[in-house]
Amino acid sequence: MPELPEVEALAVFLREHAVGAVVGRIDVAALSVLQPADPPITVLQGRDVTGVSRFGKFLAVDCAGLWLVTHLSRAGWLRWQDNPSPAPPKLGRGPLALRVHLFTPDAATPAFDLTEAGTRKRLAVWIADRPQQVPGIARLGPDALAVTADELAARLAGSTARLKTALTDQQVLAGIGNAYSDEILHVARLSPFAPAGRLTDEQRQALYDALRTVLLDAVSRSVGQDAARLKGEKRSGMRVHARTGLPCPECGDTVREVAYAERSFQYCPTCQTGGKILADRRLSRLVK
Q1: 30-64 burial, b if ≥16 CB within 10 A, otherwise e?
Q2: What are 137-150's pLDDT values in tens digits?
Q3: Which residue, among 226, 249, 227, 224, has the nearest Cα to 238 in the 3D structure?
């Protein structure tokens, strides 16, 4: 799933390549992408692209006061096309969900595609007068890169959720998902299962420092990359996420995994749990 650093990099990319252009034809290749279908997406045609913003993991393109907002979900992505096909795509074929053609001041005619891999289609697009009209944006907590240490402590205070769960709750903090929460907790040397509301002052400060370090480093590595290279850049910077069975880069212990129905997370027992192996539901089922 694209998270804060990748969505921020995509926003910067579109500011550099799309702002100043005029929206041309819009091709809808997956009807399910429009949330809702009214107003029609054709209302954007002929409007200038005047800005691009990020709200948590939402990407919002300002088209002269009318916003195209998207959430890329787990398998969505934005792809830039310098020479898009002039033929409209076939409905329901392939990963393409939406293509926005542009006319730039230098007479170029690029486009950006919203695509989604796999069979579970969750990528969504809204047309709104204000981004805050999108329900998911209206519910967001403070941005993970804007929150202060005191604000973070206040938002975790009294929580009975596991720390991993709290970090990925967009109403607590906006922008952090499964991958970067793994990285933040590893750098902070905290267990994913630690109760979020029972951290010591020292642990809360370690969490805040790790959050800033991990996200700012990921943003610095991502911004300026071509949109097509961002996924690879994200993977290359991971310490524990998606590295099950490999040695921890800090201590050399084996990176472990806890798996759920649709996703999993990774951690280092030595660095984060005092050597304890966390319960994995798959293993528990096998034992039974």
Answers
A1: beebbbeeeeebeebeeeebebbebbbbbbbbbbe
A2: 999 999 999 999 99
A3: 249
